[in-house]
Specification:
heterodimer, A: 444 residues, alpha/beta, D-Maltodextrin-Binding Protein, domain 2, two-stranded antiparallel ribbon, B: 323 residues, Rossmann fold, 2 domains, six-stranded mixed β-sheet, four-stranded antiparallel β-sheet, 10 helices, 14 strands
Amino acid sequence: MNKILLIIQREYLSRVKKKSFIWMTLLVPVLFIGMYSLLIYTAVKGDELGDLKTVLVVDESGLVKDKLKNTTNITFAYSTKTYADERSGFKDSKYNYLLRLPATLSGAQILGEKKPGASLTGNIESQVNELLKNKKLLDAGIDINILKEAEKGINIEALQITDEGEKEANAMVAYGLGFIAAILIYMSLFIYGAQVMRGVIEEKTSRVIEVIISSVKPFQLMLGKIIGVGMVGLTQFILWIVISGGLIIGAGAMLGSGKTAELAQTQQVSAGYAPGAPNTVQIASATDSPDKLAKLQRQLADIPVGYTLGIFLFYFIFGYLIYSAVFAAVGSAVDNETETQQFMIPITLPLIFTFAFSLGFIINNPDSSISVWLSMIPLTSPIAMMVRLQYDVPAWQLITSMALLVGGFIFTTWVAARIYRVGILMYGKKVTYKELAKWFFYKE
Amino acid sequence: MFLTYLLLCQRLNVANDGYFHAMLSIRHIVKQYAGQRALDDVSMEIEKGKIFGLLGPNGAGKTSLIRIINQITAPDSGEILFNGKHLNQSHIERIGYLPEERGLYKKMQIGEQTVYLARLKGLSQQEATKRAKDWFVKLGIESWWTKKIEELSKGMAQKAQFVSTVIHNPELIILDEPFSGFDPVNAEVIKNEILELNRQGATIIFSTHRMETVEELCDSIALIHKSKKILDGRVKTIKRAYRNNTYKLEYHGAELAVTDDAPFEVTSRKNTEDGHEMTVQLKEGRSVNDALLYVMPLTALTGFHEVVPTMHEIFIEKVNELH
């Protein structure tokens, strides 16, 4: 036992002291937050950031004249000349694009020196469609006020019946949390599992392995390495969270509340420009956004943090343990990293499959039988269950899944250790699956 | 009666005034690897405080046996006694092992690494550091303490590796080709350290192909070939047993013509710078004196000595016998 502690200590310290570890730990939150801020910034100010585009409209149908709404970066102007006239002199005109709406509206065209972007054509299409729809409805004798009333969308409030009464249950919050948890677990299994594998290969290629296992049992070495690297992973995660949190709080304090107000305002403005909204009633009322924010905060506060974090840690740790044992066995079977390819597919396939499937299917159908099964099978449950967790998984399912994961971990480690103890002493052999199976049945 | 007593002593491993005390009793070890027999009923006794040579061609089963002694693998059947007790995990800290396939963590500092390996053998941090420092000074590598293995020469790394093998004062030291990787000067340094450890009471097992090492250092040997032990015993006894009445004569003057009635047969002749050389084998029932009496009147002898087979020759002869 004492020796396992020594091994854990070495595996941990030798990695944590590395420059690459320190850099990764510092850079990832900075990059992550930087990227995230940039995403938000461009999403909010996206239109302003684009170049101003001027569109000259030749409206042969008479439908849209003076009705197309300018946006921050699209300005419409209307021509009284014919299309042919405008077309001939267009290259020298001050406009970027020329839009032609024929009388029948079929075969509408936009042309310019630069290729028109999707956002430009999309904007025009939806505006024209909306106008056309309204015109047709008016032609059919529908009152303009009824039309305005009909534009008001409804917002479904998701409520969940619990013992304490009705509880707000926003699917988006659950979605977001499941998504983040799945990504974190998926990433860590790959990053730290591969580190275990590389560590095993390093011991083999440097030939230190035989010296070590004349002092400790191969199983102790394997377990020590797995736990040591796992603790490195935990350390890195905790530091990431702490540093990210610090950065966010720091940035928030620096920018002050003015920024937040501005952000809310821009959100409203951009909502105002939503396709179809102009020319009709302004749906996004001033009171709408803060209300939504408060609701989101309420829903976030509703999440049982301790429970979620506890379950996350459990699946993180045991998911890591189960996969790293397999990674260790693979590392023991090969002489260098390039040879690992053939064994990597069976490991990574269930992982990638679950990951893709979780975000594509489970997150939308958390209670389907496939979802339930995937959250039970040990190799897939760490990701699948984290995605399902926010949708109130029955206790019996959670307990069964956890028990199966622990059982799966013990079984996998046992199998991996039997391969490992033989593999680490084999050099210069091209190993096949058949060979691995043989090693498994070797007596000690 | 005496024989029974001896057998009894051996069985119970009773030291009889130091006459025979086995450090290691290897008994009927069988080890099978997926259809291939690596060790087939191998038995040997390794005397306490002596230097033992484990010989054999590549793939004979030496490494398999050494791994079993180090409890890296377990035998399919048979048993090993360490100081008269069943080999178990507690003995690991009393054995020092330098494998043939050896190396150290490339990115770890050499001093830190030596301390780590010593601690895995059960030393405390303090004790390990102190002993490692002493050894580094002794071998003249103390100024390299904080260097990483990848920054060191191979010889330097080998010295550190040797320190890790013996730092915990093991009673049994197993060295697999210990001198490979050393230049002659450092090989001599290491050899003297090994002999010093032996004088202090450590039992040494050499696994090697280098017969000079065996002749020079070993008290006893065992020869393994194709997973079986084919020869063992004290080096002197074995060499004596392999004498075959062969002598070498050196003389001046004309080349000697040997008649049929000579007490020996000539097996080879050679001209040297200052005369001739002749290897002869005595005929059945004839003595050295007979041979000398025959030669002396015929020529001026400058040298006469017995040709004792080298371990190398015995090794080759034994191995070829079984082919």
